[in-house]
Amino acid sequence: MRDAGARTLTVALGDRAYPIHIGSGMLAAAGTLLAPAGTRHAVIVTNATVAAHWLAPLRQSLVARDIAVDVVLVPDGEAHKNWATLADILTRLIECRAERRSLMIALGGGVIGDIAGFAAAIYQRGMPYAQVPTTLLAQVDSSVGGKTAINHPLGKNMIGAFWQPVAVLIDTDVLSTLPDREYRSGLAEVAKYGAIGDAAFFAWLEAHADALAAREPDALAQAIDTCCRIKAAVVARDERESGERALLNFGHTFGHAIETGTGYGEWLHGEAVAAGMVLAAKLSARTDGLAAADVARLEALLTRLGLPVAPPRMACDRWMDLMQRDKKVEGAAIRFVVLSRIGQARLRGDVASDVLREVLA
Ligand code: NAD
Ligand code: GLY
């Protein structure tokens, strides 16, 4: 049953505006909430892990509206967010005669959302797709905003497109089957929103860290709602990341280097972002006067949320090489999101390499 507290936010992008439906029991309403009137065919892209738990109710809600459903199963994991999987999805779309009026539904975590969204962006020059995120990370971040991508062996998310979904459906019940490590990984992105732009939310997270770590439903629902509100507002103001949206990459320059440098899948995205945010905070202390007490608050919050705060061992030259290849590089300058205090972030493209080396030492 859909819960009485279900709510809908909007990503205000003019004629491409779309709803984010959030609540418990939402999968059962997917047919009504996701598929525009007249939809006759849906293609669900998911993996076996997620399908085992959550495919049946989604499929049922579509079939109940006389929508024919095809399912494309892709291998599970970040290591498969690549050309080969993308090619398989495109082949299956052709085989099942998907057309531009078909609706693709990405059912899964950020990996499924990113790769299915990219397939939707390029299949027949663009087909509509909806996001049904099933990890905390995807619910608070990757399902909203239309960034789609695959990885390249030389760099994370290097190939992709901005392609907005037609709707996002967040069923908080699906988190009940999410393994603990994956759940904690999502909490890193939750903490990020407080650190970069909302000191009050950061303080709220400090007060509710234990409740969140224990998956207390009210705290979790409030956190998801707040993160989606922040993300929807940022995307509406800066869809293509020409300014403010780049702040959402706090910790990601270091984090992507960790993910690429250790081989995709070894460190979960949120774990790499957590350790990356601590490095970014230490950098901020040197470049923007972030108080040592604020660095300590960030480390303490992440630790209480069960996240790593120290990066893996990597030679300094390797870090520099990996970060030079990041998408956030402009010219030769690596761009970092830095904090002057908790809740106040800016971009910096002028970090001297000796300062960076001190932080990484
Ligand atoms: P993921 O998609 O790999 O999912 C994590 C694991 O949990 C997988 O094994 C998955 O099968 C499993 N799973 C998913 N839902 C489950 C459920 N309800 N129950 C049981 N198991 C479940 O990882 P993720 O952390 O969701 O996403 C990480 C990816 O998201 C990275 O590739 C990252 O680059 C991307 N990302 C994209 C954006 C964006 O804006 N597009 C933002 C942040 C992260
Ligand atoms: N996760 C960063 C963004 O969506 O811009």
Write a structural description:
- Helices cover 47% and strands 18% of the residues.
- The chain is built from 13 helices and 11 strands.
- The radius of gyration is 20 Å and the shape is globular.
- The N and C termini lie far apart (53 Å).
- With 361 residues, the protein is an alpha/beta fold.
- The protein has helices spanning 30-34, 48-63, 83-95, 110-122, 136-142, 180-197, 199-213, 217-237, 252-262, 269-287, 292-304, 316-324, 353-360; strands at 7-11, 18-23, 41-47, 68-74, 103-108, 129-133, 147-152, 155-162, 167-171, 336-341, 344-348.
- The longest helix is centred in the middle third of the chain and has 21 residues, at 217-237.
- The strands form 3 sheets. The chain has a 7-stranded mixed sheet, with helices on both faces. A two-stranded antiparallel sheet has the order 7-8.
- Helix 5 (136-142) runs parallel beside helix 8 (217-237) and helix 6 runs parallel beside helix 10.
- The chain binds nicotinamide-adenine-dinucleotide and glycine (GLY).
In short, what is this structure?
With 361 residues, the protein is an alpha/beta fold. The chain has helices at residues 30-34, 48-63, 83-95, 110-122, 136-142, 180-197, 199-213, 217-237, 252-262, 269-287, 292-304, 316-324, 353-360; strands at 7-11, 18-23, 41-47, 68-74, 103-108, 129-133, 147-152, 155-162, 167-171, 336-341, 344-348.
Strand-residue fraction? Answer: 15-25%
Q: Mean pLDDT, as a whole number?
A: 95
What oligomeric state do these chains adopt?
A: single chain
Unreliable stretches: none
**Helix/sheet category:** alpha/beta
**What is the end-to-end distance?**
53 Å
Instruction: Report the bound ligands by name, code or SMILES.
Output: nicotinamide-adenine-dinucleotide, glycine
How does the major sheet shape up? 7 strands, mixed
Biggest sheet: strand arrangement: 1-2-9-6-5-3-4
**CA-based gyration radius:** 20 Å
Q: Please give the share of residues in helix.
A: 40-55%
**Care to count the β-strands?**
11
- How do the helices and strands follow one another from N- to C-terminus? EEHEHEHEHEHEEEHHHHHHHEEH
Counted by DSSP, the helix tally is 13
Overall shape: it is globular
